[in-house]
């Protein structure tokens, strides 16, 4: 069973241009283990909270992580996630840590041990579509898709999450945020925002633009540019589309 605890952490780290980055994250630590039959818990949450605050938050909060004055050198969020894992020794007591996550703004950094890290960037776009399959009759389309089959279409404010996985490069980053954002904006956000997916975009000309198909097309559009930005080191791991607060789809590739 998995158990997760969330804490807040704010630190500073020097940038290459001599300035300082402020890292303000939700620190999300997940452990896995069996439920103890004596007390009905995987881990004592009070002890988990105390350990995280003592060994991580109090040690790092408000400090400049430049490797001086007794601080570790953790200049990127990727390095920070790995460093926190190391501070915990990959365990909380006898319970193994399964993930250290740093979430802040439009970025999420996940470390699960080993050499690789996941980096997720979050984007938004608004688009209209109509759900209609040419292989079905009008009556069948109405039955299957309901009001989403309205000939006038309807719109959504989509949330797009793009996750890449790999080993950080010489800068300590997996992929520069500016590069990440430019690729996703060019291939998806700027292209799809405030468009009618059925009528305006060639990639949906012969597709019923369900959330599932949107996720698949998004994958195909960004895969080569993202992976080509750091050949052999970065790979596309996941596309997630949040069509509404209640409807989400995830795609991990063909």
Properties at a glance:
ten-stranded mixed sheet, alpha+beta, Tetrahydropterin Synthase, Chain A, globular, 2 domains, 254 residues, single chain
Question: Topology, please?
Answer:
Blueprint: E1 2-14, E2 20-32, H1 45-60, H2 77-88, E3 91-92, E4 95-104, E5 107-111, E6 117-129, H3 138-145, E7 154-166, H4 177-192, E8 195-196, H5 197-200, H6 211-228, E9 234-242, E10 248-251
Parallel strand pairs: 6-8
Antiparallel strand pairs: 1-2, 2-4, 3-4, 4-5, 5-6, 6-7, 7-9, 9-10
Helix pairs in contact: 4-6
Could you characterize what this model shows?
With 254 residues, the protein is of the alpha+beta class. The model has no long low-confidence stretch (mean pLDDT 94). 29% of the residues lie in helices and 33% in strands. It has two domains: 2-112, 2-Layer Sandwich (Tetrahydropterin Synthase, Chain A), CATH 3.30.479.10; 118-251, Tetrahydropterin Synthase, Chain A (2-Layer Sandwich), CATH 3.30.479.10. Strands 1, 2, 3, 4, 5, 6, 7, 8, 9 and 10 form a ten-stranded mixed sheet that branches. Helix 4 runs antiparallel to helix 6 (211-228). The chain has six helices and ten strands; from the N terminus they run ββααββββαβαβααββ. The chain has helices spanning 45-60, 77-88, 138-145, 177-192, 197-200, 211-228; strands spanning 2-14, 20-32, 91-92, 95-104, 107-111, 117-129, 154-166, 195-196, 234-242, 248-251.
């Amino acid at each position: 069973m998995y158990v997760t605890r969330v804490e807040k952490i704010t630190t500073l780290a020097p940038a290459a241009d001599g300035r300082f980055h402020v890292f303000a994250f939700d620190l999300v630590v997940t452990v896995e283990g069996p439920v103890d039959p004596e007390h009905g818990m995987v881990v004592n949450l009070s002890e988990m909270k105390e350990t995280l605050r003592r060994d991580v938050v109090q040690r790092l909060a408000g400090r400049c992580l430049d490797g001086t004055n007794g601080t570790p050198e953790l200049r990127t969020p990727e390095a920070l996630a790995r460093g926190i894992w190391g501070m915990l020794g990959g365990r909380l007591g006898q319970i193994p840590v399964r993930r250290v996550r740093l979430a802040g703004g439009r970025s999420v950094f996940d470390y699960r041990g080993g050499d690789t890290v996941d980096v997720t960037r979050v984007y938004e776009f608004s688009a209209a579509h109509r759900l209609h399959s040419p292989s079905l009759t009008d009556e069948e389309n109405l039955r299957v898709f309901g009001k989403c089959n309205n000939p006038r279409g309807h719109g959504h404010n989509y949330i797009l999450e793009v996750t890449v996985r790999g080993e950080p490069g010489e800068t300590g980053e997996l992929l520069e945020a500016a590069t990440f954002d430019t690729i996703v904006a060019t291939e998806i956000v700027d292209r799809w925002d405030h468009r009618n997916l059925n009528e305006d975009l060639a990639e949906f000309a012969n597709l019923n633009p369900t959330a599932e198909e949107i996720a698949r097309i998004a994958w195909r559009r960004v895969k080569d540019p993202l992976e080509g930005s750091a050949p052999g080191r970065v790979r596309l791991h996941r596309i997630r589309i949040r069509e509404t607060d209640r409807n989400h789809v995830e795609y991990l590739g063909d």
